[in-house]
Amino acid sequence: MSSIYDIAKLTGFSSTTVARALSNKGYCKPKTKEIIYEAASTLNYTPNLSAKTLRNNRTQRILLCIPDICNPFYFRMIQGASKVLEENDYYVMLCSTEKEIAKELKMLSLLQQKYCDGVILISFNFCEENIGAIRRIGRPVILGNRYLGQREDDPFDYVYVDHIYGMELAADHLFDKGCKNVLLLTGSREDQTSRERTEGFLRALGRRSLPEDPAYIVDCRYNTSGAYEAFNRFLERGIPVDGVIAANDLAAYGVLRSCREHGLSVPGDLRLVSFDNTDYALVSSPTLTSVDMCQYSLGEQLALRLLERIEGNTKIRNITLKPTLIERESSE
Amino acid sequence: MSSIYDIAKLTGFSSTTVARALSNKGYCKPKTKEIIYEAASTLNYTPNLSAKTLRNNRTQRILLCIPDICNPFYFRMIQGASKVLEENDYYVMLCSTEKEIAKELKMLSLLQQKYCDGVILISFNFCEENIGAIRRIGRPVILGNRYLGQREDDPFDYVYVDHIYGMELAADHLFDKGCKNVLLLTGSREDQTSRERTEGFLRALGRRSLPEDPAYIVDCRYNTSGAYEAFNRFLERGIPVDGVIAANDLAAYGVLRSCREHGLSVPGDLRLVSFDNTDYALVSSPTLTSVDMCQYSLGEQLALRLLERIEGNTKIRNITLKPTLIERESSE
DNA sequence: GTGAAAGCGCTAACAC
DNA sequence: GTGTTAGCGCTTTCAC
Questions:
Q1: Do the beta carbons of residue A194 and residue A256 sit within 8 Å?
Q2: Is the CB of B239 under 7 A from strand D?
Q3: Strand C atom within 7 Å of B32 CB
């Protein structure tokens, strides 16, 4: 409501003196400062962020865009990014894009309109429109996925988790436990993550000279009901199976349900490993062995790299993180 | 990067004309408009939001503050609020306060600093400091909980869900199914929600002239392990039980686990009802009968009421929503 | 119909 | 050390 000028008028000091007193920059007599603080308090003064931003070209604000607030995969990543950004006196604004390109472009336009100092984009759609917009805007952006078409002068980097390696961990673990017939439940061929994971699976098979059988690679659409139905259909075919790798913890729930209905015990009759290591992995019965995709440090690294870019370090530097396997009851 | 003045310089028109052309307000020759649009595009012009806000005192931005992004209870509420706000051309900025008063005050200071047009506060701490700040700021705020100390000229309203009624639904359902000994797993006495729910439970008992037995009201801390341990301890006491009301879906998971370990079948040996009707209720085995706390419409109503306040309708109007029971396998 | 100019609130440069 | 001033980019009022 009130501005620096109002305080100046009330106290008789110049606006500059008032500004100096309030910002603690430059010298100001203690007595003067006291008077000004008191006036500010009686006038209920608050600095106006827009004026400050207009002047400084700095917002101290970061936009964190995720495709879906309900997906537990993102939680710890959000926390990791928030921690780093808040420690550096940035505000974190979380926005859900629902995988709609229109909303993604809207977020990018906020970056262009100086609404924020930078943007972190997670599971972003790498279509020409989006990438073109990022390049045109030319302001700090970090992606949370691997992007292969990157150019040297692009205004963005990416931080990503190695899905190939993660899948090798999962498959090796089951083979080490003695599994002979391992089913891979994953996403569709179009999905980059699924392709990478399938590659990891095939590598693990190859290293042990095990045969590649397409019957053991099934699309489960990354959710409980998709996995439930896919696994039911798989069991109907009567193919032997003593190990399952689920696309994520939710998909593992579908497998568990199907097993229960078919009288199969986990891990007695078959061992189960899933991905993401979310809270779901902790509360199921049995608890789930799950590949931790280091979401928290993913968030931290995204934030750190973005801050570097904002500080002017614009040389491309992409970061790869290595997942780890967390063993629990489902694969004992 | 470029401003209206840059376009004016390039095209030779006055800045006013350029502004008119770009905003589509007031008349502008089609030919002129075309030239200006082209210049804007070659200069890669973007309006500056801060300048606009500074001038208009309007941000078209709403802050949605929740205590914890990981809690599935809030998901559908966030979606409901976002839908309404986006339909009305507002941007939704989600912020997590982690139940820390310092962060809550920080969010309120953003409201004061004209960073946004209004704030929705969910599960807000009603301490004097916070309520005092809201009153001092005097700008639009909506609370997502019932607040009893409200004054007539307060700058906020609340929208809340009737927990007493919700608990009556849950208890009546179990009694209707023939349960005789129903255990209530809830939160601590200090928690307003827990107190209201306990009241609903006692009312349901009273209506059927059933005795109040404190042994059947147990604190489970609203999470899986808390409920697991509390229910284990309860079973050890050997008290008869054929129905359980869990504080939320996560707590129900703890009960399910304990039942499995004790060889109790759900719903065969005991029926189970929980609260919140989140995705967790859908993916467990058995699926959970759960009281839907109408999170989506809660979000919608919060947003609608806030928009009313922003439009100048500042008369206090609080809203109460009635939950519904969703029946699933756990209480069949 | 078009243009000049003031001002939103803040900050930094430069006088004094 | 303190004060004056210009300007960030936009919008609105008021002349012409």
A1: no
A2: no
A3: yes
Among chain B, residues having any CB pair with chain A shorter than 8 Å are 44, 46-51, 53-54, 59, 69-70, 72, 75, 78-79, 82, 91-96, 109-110, 112-115, 136, 224, 250, 253-254, 256-257, 260, 279-280, 282-285
B chain contacts of residue A95, beta-carbon cutoff 8 Å = 91-94
| Band of residue A103 on the pLDDT scale cut at 50, 70, 90 | very high
DSSP annotation of B74 reads G
- β partners of residue B65: B95, B121
- pLDDT of amino acid B231: 98
Work out whether the CA dihedral B146, B141, A23, A115 comes out positive or negative.
positive
Residues 200-219, chain B, CB closer than 7 Å to nucleic strand C: none
Confidence band for A23, pLDDT divided at 50, 70 and 90: confident
For A285, the closest of B95, B113, B256 (CB atoms) is B256
Q: What are φ and ψ of residue A318, in 5° steps?
A: -95, 150
Distance, in Å, from the CA atom of A173 to the CA atom of A331, rounded to the nearest integer, reads 9
Helix axes A49-56, B49-56, angle to 10 degrees: 140
A26 CB neighbours strand D below 7 A: yes
pTM confidence score? 0.92
Q: Which residues of chain B have pLDDT under 70?
A: 1
Nucleotides of C under 7 A from a protein CB: 1-5, 7-13
CA distance B286 to B304: 37
Long-range CB contacts for residues A257-264, cutoff 8 Å, separation at least 24: A257/A224, A257/A228, A257/B283, A257/B285, A258/A227, A258/A228, A258/A231, A258/A232, A259/A231, A260/B285, A262/A235
Residues of chain B with C-beta less than 8 angstroms from the C-beta of A92: 95
SS3 helix, strand, coil % of chain A, rounded to 5?
Answer: 50, 15, 35
> Do residue A250 and residue B284 have CB atoms under 8 angstroms apart?
no
At A207, is the pLDDT very low, low, confident or very high (cuts 50, 70, 90)?
Answer: very high
- Domains defined for chain B, CATH in brackets: 4-47 (1.10.260.40), 59-161+295-320 (3.40.50.2300), 164-293+327-331 (3.40.50.2300)
Point out the residue among B113, B257, B285 whose CB comes nearest to the CB of A46.
B113
pLDDT tens by residue, B121-155: 999 999 999 999 999 999 999 999 999 999 999 99
Q: Count the neighbouring beta carbons within 10 Å of the beta carbon of residue A67.
A: 18
Higher-scoring residue by pLDDT: A297, A25: A297
pLDDT of residue B29: 83
